Amino acid sequence: MNATSIRDGEAAPPLIQLDAVAKSFGSNLVLDGVDFELRPGEVHALCGENGAGKSTCLDLLYGLHQPSDGKILCNGKEQRIENPSHAQSLGISCVFQELSLAGALSVAENIYAGRAPARMGVVDWPELRRRAEALLAEFGLEIDVSMPVDSLPISSRQIVEIAKALSLNSRVLLLDEPTSALAPDEVDALFDVLRGLTRKGIGIVYVSHHMAEIFRISDRVTVLRDGRHISTLPATQTSQEQVVAEMIGGAHPGDVSGSRTVNGDKVVAVTGLSHPGEFEDISFSINAGEIVGMAGLMGARRSEIVRSIVGLVQGATGNVELHDQPVKFTSIRQAMRAGIGFVPEERKTEGLFLEQSLSDNLIAASLAEHTSMGLMRNGSIRAASRAAIDAFSVKASGLAEEVGALSGGNQQKIMLAKWLKRVPDLLIVEEPTKGVDVGAKFQIHTELQRRAAEGMAILVVSSDFPELVSLCSRILVVHEGRLMGDIPAEQASESVLLQMAAGTTLRSAASATPDSGATL
Amino acid sequence: MTMTVQSDYSEKRPPLLRILQAFVDIRELMLIVLIAAIIIVMSNLNPYFFSFSNFRAVAVGMAPTAIIVIGMAILLASGGFDLSVGSVMALSSTVVAMLLLTGMPIPLAVILGLILGGVVGVVNGVLVTGLGINPLIATLGTMSIARGIALVLTEGFSVSSLPVSFAWIGKADIGGFPVIVLLTILLVIAFDLAVRHTRFFRQVYFIGANEKAAMLSGIHVTRVRIILYALTGVLAALAGVLLASRLMSGTPTAGNGIELQVLAAAVIGGASLRGGEGTILGAFLGVVFVALINNTMTMQAVSIYWQMIVIGGVLVSAVALDMLIRSKRG
After folding, report:
1. Strand partners, A28
2. Could you write out the three-class secondary structure of B272-287?
3. What residue ranges are annotated as transmembrane (chain B) (predicted)?
4. What is the mean pLDDT of chain B?
C-alpha cells in the first residue's frame, strides 16, 4: 500500500528523524546510536523485544526525555523537544499503551484534554461535543460523549485515547500498541482511519508486538535489539519470520511443546460455581501436573471466576474442592495457606511493589519462610532470590534493583517467581505473558511446564489464544460468564477458541467433547 | 481494575438506591437539603435562630473560611493540599496592619498583602512541583514559617490603632448586607462558574485524576499547580485582610487551626484528598453546613468542646457514606 506516497515522501525531508541517538539512564545505556526516520505518508513500524528501546524512542520523540547523544531532526532541522506540550506544538502526538484518561470526566473533555474549544477561556460545550462525536464517528463508535470515560468498556476507552491524539491534527502520530484492547472489527476501523491519515501525508510510527498487524499496516519496518538499530526494510522485502529472527538475534526459542499426558491426582474440582449477574454454573477440575487454560474475550468474567475461587471475590455459590476437601475461602490468605497461588493480571497495580527491590518483591508472598523470631533472615532471602533469578534468567543489575526499573518481561518473571517460590499445589496465573517479549515468553512457558512436570496443577487465564493452544493440555472456554466448552488442546485451534469465546458456535464446537460443562 | 471493565452505566438498580445514589453523587443537593433541615428544625426550637441578625452574624463569621475554601477546593481537585492558609491569613493581616501604620494608602497596603499571600503560595507550589516535596510536608513547613514571621514581626502582639477608613472593607453594609459577605458570595459564584466552564480550570481535574496522563496530554502540570497554590495564597491573604479590617487589628495568631476547618468543610462538600473531584459550590455549602451546626449548638448552649466532637463526627460520616456508596457501586 501507499507505494506512491512513499515515493513522494522521498523528495521531502523526513517528518522526523533520529540521527545516531543515544540515551542512557545512569549507567544503563538503553539506546546506542539509533537511526530512524519517518517520511510523510508512511506507516513505519518499530519492532523489538521489550527493553530493545522502542518505548525510549517514542519517549524521545514526544519530549519525555532528551537524547544523551546524537540529535533529533524535525523536517530536516535539528530540534530539541522539551516536553509533551512542545512536541504537540511541533505537530507530534502520541497514543500510549497505558491509557492516559481522566475517568471521572466526560469522553468529550478527555479527547480535548486541556484544549477544549473556548471563547475567551470559557469552554464551548456544544462545539466540544460536536467535534468529539465527529472524531469518534470515524471509528464507527457512537456513544454519548458526555458520559464519563469510566463507564466505557476498555476497547472504547482505547478508541477515545486514539481519538484524543487525532484531535491534535498532528503531522506525526506515535502509536504504542494501539490495538491491545481492540476487537478485530475495531482494528479494521482503526487501520482505515490510519490509511486515511497517511493519504493526507501524515507519518505514523507504529509500535506493536502483533506481527500480523505490523505487516498489514506498515510500509517500512525497523528492528531494534538491545538499544541498537538492526535493520530498516520496506515491509514487502522482509517477512514476519525474518523480523522475529532479527528481534531475538541468535536465539531461536521456537514453539513450546511439553508433555501433554497427565495422570496426576485431582487437585481442584469446581462444580456449579455461580455468582448472580457475573457467571453461572462453572464446573471443571484440574489434576496434578496439568496445565489447563481458560480462554475468553473481554467481559467473559474469567477474572471474576478465578478470583471467586481464591477468595478475592465473595458471594459465589457452588462447590470448590481442593484435594477432595470442600473449601470456601473468604480471603486470599486462606487460599494461600491451603496451597493456592494467584498471579494477577495487572503487574503494575496488583502484582508488584514497583519501588521495592527485586528481592523484596520475590519474598513478599512468603515472608514467614524468611523470618525467625520476628527478624528477617537476609541470608536466606538472598539465596532464595538468586535461585529465582537464575530459574528465570532475569536481567537485572542486582538483587537491590527496583522492580519498577526492570523491563516488562523481567517484571512478569519476578511476579511469577514470587508465587512459584511458595510451591503451591494449584497455581492460577492471569495473562502470564501480557506485553512480554518473545524471549521472556518462552522462558515463562518453559518454567510453567517444568513446574507442571513436577506435579503442580496450573490454571492459565489468557487472551492470547495461540499461547493457550501451545501451552495447555485442556482449554476451558468462557463466554459471558458461561462455560462454553472444555476441549483438549489437540482439538483446539485459535479459530475454534475464538468462535467459542465469541459465543458464535455454541454446541458445534463444544460437541467435540461429549459433555461441555462438567467433565471429570 | 479488571472487574469494573464492563460498562455499568446501563445497569438496572432499585429506584430507591438510584435516588440515594443521585443524592450522594450530587453532594450539593444533599447539603442543601441538610442545611434546610437544620434551619427548619432550629427555627422551631429557638426563636432567635431564624432572624436576620443571627444569619448575618453566622455569615460574617464564616466569610474568611468560605473565601479560603475556594482555593482549597481547587487545590484538592488538582490533587494538591495546603496547610499554610491559616498562617498566611495571619501574616497578611499583620503585614497589612503594619504597612497601614506607616501611613501607606489603604489600597496599596491591601494589594501588597495579597501579593505576599501569592508569594507564599508560589513558594508552596515550587516546593511541591519543582522539588517534589509532598504537599503535606511542604505546606506544614511554610505554615510554621509564615506563622513564625507574623509572630516575629509583631513580637506576638496585635497591631491595632489602624486608620478608621480601613474598617470600611470589613464592617460596611450595602443595603443591609455586609460587604464582606457580598464579596464572599461573589467570589464563590465567580470561581464556581470558572471551575466548571473555563479551559484553565478544567485542566485541574485532569491533573487531579491522573497527573502523568495530564502531562502526556500536553497540559503544563507544573505551571498550573504553581498558579493554584498562588491563588490559594492570595485568597488566604484576602481572608486575613478582611479579618484585620473587621477587627481593626492585625493579629499574628489569627486563623489558627482554620486550615483543618477549611479542609473538613471542603471534604464534607464533596472534595477528596485523592483529587479529581469536588466543586466550589459544594465546598462552600460544606462551610455553611458546618457554620450552621456550630451556630445551632452555640444557641442551644452546647459546650464548645462538644462542637469539636460533632464536627469530627460529621466529617467522618460524610466520607464514610461516600465510600460505602462507591463500594456498593463496585
Report:
1. A25
2. CCCCCCCCHHHHHHHH
3. 29-49, 55-76, 108-133, 145-169, 175-195, 226-248, 280-298, 304-325
4. 88
Sorted by where each begins, the domain ranges of chain A are 3-248, 263-339+424-520, 359-421
Q: How far is A458 from chain B (nearest CA, A)?
A: 21
Q: In degrees, to the nearest 5, what angle opens at C-alpha A41 toward C-alphas A40 and A44? A: 90
**Nearest CA distance, B67 vs chain A (angstrom):** 23
Which CATH superfamily is A3-248 part of? Answer: P-loop containing nucleotide triphosphate hydrolases (3.40.50.300)
Asked if A345 is an interface residue toward chain B (Cβ–Cβ < 8 A), one would say: yes
ipTM, two decimals: 0.75
* Domain spans, chain B: 59-317
Confidence (pLDDT) at B14: 65
Contact A329, A311 (CB under 8 A): yes
What Å distances lie between residue A495 and A172, A213, A295, B91, B239, CA to CA? 36, 17, 12, 72, 69
Q: Residue B7: which of A94, A105, A153 has the nearest Cβ?
A: A153
Q: How many CA atoms lie within 13 A of B297 on its CB side?
A: 15
A89, A92, A105: which to substitute to probe chain B, counting the most B Cβ within 10 Å?
A: A105
The β-bridge relationship of strands A172-176 and A203-207 is: parallel
**N-term to C-term CA, chain B:** 10
Q: What is the DSSP letter of B250?
A: B
3-state SS string for A29-71: EEEEEEEEEECCCCEEEEECCCCCCHHHHHHHHCCCCCCCEEE
Query: What's domain B59-317's architecture?
Result: Orthogonal Bundle (1.10)
Residue B124, pLDDT score? 97
User: For cell 532479527, what's the residue?
Assistant: A246
Question: Are A208 and A223 in contact, with CB atoms under 8 Å apart?
Answer: no
The residue count of chain A comes to 520
> What part of A 126-145 touches B (C-beta under 8 Å)?
none
CATH classification code of A263-339+424-520? 3.40.50.300
Is the predicted pLDDT of residue A393 greater than 90, yes or no? no
Which residues fall within 8 angstroms of residue B316, CB to CB, at 6 or more apart? Answer: none
Q: In terms of DSSP bridges, do strands A291-296 and A457-462 run parallel, antiparallel, or are they unpaired?
A: parallel
**What pTM value is reported for the model?**
0.73
| DSSP-derived 3-state class of residue B83 | coil
Contact B120, B114 (CB under 8 A): no
Do the domains at A3-248 and A263-339+424-520 have one common CATH topology? Answer: yes
The single residue listed with the C-alpha cell 492516559 is A100
Contact predicate A514/A487, CB 8 Å? no
Q: Which residues of A touch B206 (CB under 8 A)?
A: 102, 105, 113-114
User: What pLDDT band is residue A370 in, cutting at 50, 70 and 90?
Assistant: confident
A385 vs A97: CA distance, rounded Å: 30
- Chain-centroid distance of CA B90 in Å reads 16
pLDDT tens digit sequence for A128-183? 999 999 988 887 778 889 998 888 877 788 888 888 888 888 899 999 888 877 77
Q: Is the pLDDT of residue A199 over 60?
A: yes
| pLDDT tens by residue, B132-168 | 899 999 999 999 999 999 999 999 899 988 898 998 8
**Which triple of cell numbers denotes residue B35?**
442545611
C-alpha cell of A286? 484440574
Q: Which residue has the higher pLDDT, B252 or A371?
A: B252
Largest Cα span, chain A: 74
DSSP letters along B155-182, please?
Answer: TT--B----GGGHHHHH-EETTEEHHHH
CA angle at A140 for the pair A137 and A142, rounded to the nearest 5°: 70
pLDDT value of position B118: 97
Over residues B177-211, the pLDDT tens digits come to 899 999 999 999 999 999 999 989 999 999 998 88
DSSP summary character for residue A148: B
- CB B213, CB B86: distance < 8 Å: no
